[in-house]
Amino acid sequence: MKQLYDYQLKTNESFREAHKKSIENPQAFWGEIASTFKWQQPWEEVLRYDWSVPKTAWFLGGKLNITENCLDCHVVTHPDKDALIWEPNDPNDATVRYTYKDLLSAVCQFANGLKNQGIKKGDRVCIYMPMVPELTIAVLACARIGAIHSVVFAGFSSTALAARINDASCALLITSDGAFRGNKTVPLKDIADQALAQCESVKKCFVFQRTFQEINWNPRKDIWWHDFIEGLADTCTPAIMDAEDPLFILYTSGSTGKPKGMVHSCGGYMVYTAYTFMNVFQYQPEDIYWCTADIGWITGHSYMIYGPLACGATSLHFEGVPSYPKWNRFWEICEKHKVTQFYTAPTAIRALAKHPTKLIEDYDLSSLKVLGSVGEPINEEAWHWYDTHIGYNETPIVDTWWQTETGGILISSLAGVTPQKPTYATLPMPGIQAALVDNEGKVIIENEAEGILTINYPWPSIARTIYGDHERYKEVYFSAFEGRYFPGDGALRDVDGNYRITGRVDDVVIVSGHNLGTAPIENAINAHPAVVESAVVGYPHDIKGNALMAYVILYESIEDNATLISEVREEISKQIGPIAKPDRVMVVSGLPKTRSGKIMRRILRKLAANEIDQLGDISTLLNPEIVDEIIAGLAKE
Ligand code: WT7
Fold first, then answer.
1. Relative to the CA of 377, which ligand 1 atom is closest?
2. Ligand 1 atom index nearest CA of 299
3. Residue 257's pLDDT is what?
4. In angstroms, rounded to a whole number, what is the distance separating the alpha carbons of residues 408 and 70?
């Protein structure tokens, strides 16, 4: 029987062949790859879909548990290999390692704890934790018993946390007393307490002790992690899951209103994340793979936990930040653990590039074989800096384009196997049928073109729905262009068919790699009693990629805008989190609107970017004079 690694594509020709086969016969293609995993019961049908509903199902009737494939299988073949290497925030603290055997025991023990508390298959469990190994353990323990995890990034505010808990009626919250981030300590339990005051569904709160800071204790709800796992067995029979049963919910921002709880399934997600991990990063058995993301995002789920572990890899997790104690921390960790694959975000690359290269030169980075980028378009300058200073102009760079919704990487080169091209994500992965369409939805046939990116055929890890709102799922992803999945990005294509993602075509702005909808930020601003209306737009920023600017209209003009502006920023921080605070807030007397009353965001974006000569025709506006007012305001900024 073939093994997963028999499907590792090692030449450009084999990639081309695989891609061809995946299009000609997708079911045979994915069926073969899926057969390399452990199934408790084989599937009856590889794929059934109808995107007019929309409905997508893979490996129908198949039964499995993803943790068996991520843990038990490897405990049989390589029990003592490190599954997880954990680097703490403080470089003077010890590295923690979990072999596959250790990790399986820890996961099972915690899973038994969850069961003792009455958590069962299908229950939703919210996880709001720092980047400690226990976060990964909690995630996998949920999967072990079939509970649906919903990880909320620990940088989100209590209001944002409460909204996510309530949306999925989570039965349990797992958090920690606090979190270490650089020289800061974040009071996670306090934030969680504030959230729980608004969440009736949560019966218990598990608290992992990380910072040993003082916290409030609610004896009816709170339980220490170390207390409730004490004495529990470290084996736990994996729940039998249907391939299509939900594995997790992960929230992402939308152009409008509340966050979207993307629902991922067990079978297809496992197959696709493992296949793409192995191929994009060209993982080899002795490699030490490091992705610097946070598990609170999809990159952490797919390429720090599930993908690497399903491939039996060693995945390094880092608790801290690139700047602490100094801006050399990433390189110190690369040298210390002889990291072979390093996967980070353009915003981190740009921030690192601002510091003297001396901070890199002190370290031996010769172990690095693959560099990766994810989260936003990588600009020319950042790409070349990465290539020169970290890759010594010879380490392959993979620019991986994908989304929370796609579950795994859809467009990327395969490291050292398929050609790379600066700033281009390059070619769709096997199984991915991409197309560019124009605004009317007409497919652009010529290779060299610019348009809106769409995907025309299901792949195994596509999110199956938005939790509790299938209508919105249909509306957002399947209504723009009939029969096609619409990711919300624009793209360029070159003569060779390589894609370069140019950025969002909707009202989502990616700030420092964080996906932020402008609508929820505007809602937070409008909640201020002095504010009539507001508009938030993104504009280019050196390090963050994009920064936010808010235009705010007040009921009455006031002398001291500074206080109001800081109140507005505070409100955003409270409702969403500090990452959503705009860099610039401008008080204006009106917003440029069309005659039908629609805010002209295009103009506001140009103004924020200081591209005053590119405003285009503004004479058809309802109130063109407001543009002059804003220009005058910009001059005073
Ligand atoms: C949006 C999805 C993918 C995991 C992290 C972000 C942008 C992502 C790239 C890339 C250009 C990229 C897109 C996408 N994006 N990767 N390599 N090149 N843009 O996941 O928060 O769901 O954001 O991030 O705009 O739609 P996310």
1. 11
2. 4
3. 66
4. 16
Task: Give the pLDDT of residue 618.
Answer: 84
For the CA of 501, the nearest atom of ligand 1: 11
535 CA from centroid of ligand 1 (Å): 23
What's the confidence (pLDDT) of residue 595?
77
Q: Name the token pair of 620.
A: 């058809």
d(CA 618, CA 403): 35
Q: Name the residue ranges covered by the structural domains of the chain.
A: 4-434, 512-635
Report residues of the chain scoring pLDDT below 50: none
Gap from CA of 500 to ligand 1 centroid (Å): 12
- Provide the 8-state DSSP code for 42: -
* Nearest to 344, CA basis, from 357, 331, 355, 362: 331
Residue 544 near residue 512, CB atoms below 8 Å: yes
Give the model confidence (pLDDT) of 330-358 as tens digits.
Answer: 999 999 999 999 999 999 999 999 999 99
Q: Which residues contact 76 (CB under 8 A, 6 or more apart)?
A: none
3-state secondary structure 114-127: HHHCCCCCCCEEEE
Instruction: Read off the pTM.
Output: 0.93
Q: Do domains 4-434 and 512-635 have the same CATH topology?
A: no
Q: Which of 401, 486, 579 to mutate to test the pocket of ligand 1 (most atoms within 8 A of CB)?
A: 401
Distance 19 CA to ligand 1 centre (A): 22
Among residues 402, 404, 403, which one has the least CA distance to residue 412? 402
Residues 125/139, Cβ–Cβ less than 8 Å = no
Return the pLDDT at 558.
86
Q: What is the DSSP letter of 445?
A: -
DSSP, collapsed to helix, strand or coil, labels residue 489 as: strand
Q: Is the CB of 515 under 6 A from ligand 1?
A: yes
User: CATH homologous superfamily of domain 4-434?
Assistant: ANL, N-terminal domain (3.40.50.12780)
> Is any ligand 1 atom within 6 A of the Cβ of residue 424?
no
CATH number of 512-635: 3.30.300.30
Q: Kindly tell me the burial class for residue 52, based on how many C-beta atoms sit within 10 Å of its own C-beta (0-12, 13-18, 19 or more).
A: exposed
Q: Which atom of ligand 1 is nearest to the CA of 425?
A: 17
Name the residue type at position 283.
Y
Q: What kind and span of H or E run contains 236?
A: none
CB of 401 sitting under 6 A from ligand 1: yes
Identify the CA nearest to 629 among candidates 593, 590, 598. Answer: 590
- Residue 187, classified by CB atoms within 10 Å of its CB into exposed (0-12), middle (13-18) or buried (19+), is middle
Give the residue, by CA position, lying nearest to ligand 1 atom 2: 403
- CA 185/CA 399 separation, integer angstroms: 33
Give residue-wise pLDDT tens across range 215-224: 999 999 999 9
Question: 175 CB under 6 A from ligand 1?
Answer: no
